[in-house]
Nitroreductase (Tepidiforma flava), 318 residues
Amino acid sequence: MTIVQVDHWLRLAALAPSPLNTQPWRFRVTPAAIELFDDPARALPVADPGGRERTIACGCALLNLRAAGAAAGCEEQVALLPDPARGGLLARAVLAEGPADAALAALAPAIEQRWTTRRALRAAPLPPGLLPALAAEAAAEGAELLPVDGRAARQLLADLCAEADRLQHHDPAWRHEVARWIHPGRSNDGLPASRLGGRALRFLVDHFDFGGTSASRDEVYILHAPAVLLLATPGDEPRDWLRAGQALQRVLLRAALDGVQAGYLQQPLQLPGLRERVAAAFSPGRWPQVCLRLGLPVEDPPRRRRRPVADFADFVPA
Ligand SMILES: Cc1cc2nc3c(=O)[nH]c(=O)nc-3n(C[C@H](O)[C@H](O)[C@H](O)COP(=O)(O)O)c2cc1C
């Protein structure tokens, strides 16, 4: 594991998705291992008070690191939450030359091809065989991928999303938190906003309630997406969130290999009460972690906004 190699792997790890593109991870690289930490300075206390989504995002980054290592011919040893006494330490990965996980290595080329869409998807169905392949990727990390199929089920999910959209947009603290991550003058994290339109957008998001507009848009998205999927885990502890993140990233990368991209429908999972109703309807006995719509995108990928490795990694000499 050379410094140049690790620097490359960390750049790929940071291409993981995260809520509002907060990139809530830190890495500590020692000669023996790469440690992944939660970065609470990048928390979203209103939308994600327990840090569940932040930990899922860190799980996504960990999966990218593992896939990048496997593609470089490394064998992995990964421990989740290896030392509870060290607060914030989420995982320790040892990547050394050895028999690499071929399934993980096969996903690595998609790390740079995956991105999040916020527009309607093409109506074309998913490539044959893709859905079972995605379910297998989720299962490989101990999660389940459950399809939300049929008009009645989609409508119920749309109604739950609409309720969440209205509640969130009505809350000034939530609007303010989203607006804080729209950075017209900064290009390496947060949501895309042009220098010209960005300030206006930030002001509008902060001060006006667009709950009704978002609810109507999400209803169309949910009813017409080629696939709507719920990723669920048996438990709901930080270890489950890390597993969910790795499962999510495997699903997203496998889809991206076929040109299929995802949009998120997280709103009902961010509100207690609504999340339980989603579970009761679509994943009884399991915890819904992520809700996605999948299909071929209509637009070109946006320009990437990511921090440089030096911003989120410390290299500790022997
Ligand atoms: C746990 C999690 C929750 C997310 N929630 C949303 C969401 O509610 N709405 C949305 O548009 N994108 C959501 N995203 C996607 C991020 O906005 C996206 O990953 C980020 O802006 C970086 O862009 P990229 O995925 O195109 O690299 C979420 C991502 C993760 C990992």
Summary: The pocket of flavin mononucleotide is lined by residues 17-21, 53, 56-57, 60, 115-116, 118, 264, 266, 290 (CB under 6 Å). The chain has a mean pLDDT of 95. The chain has two domains: 3-114+304-315, 130-295. The CA atoms of residues 44 and 155 lie 29 Å apart.
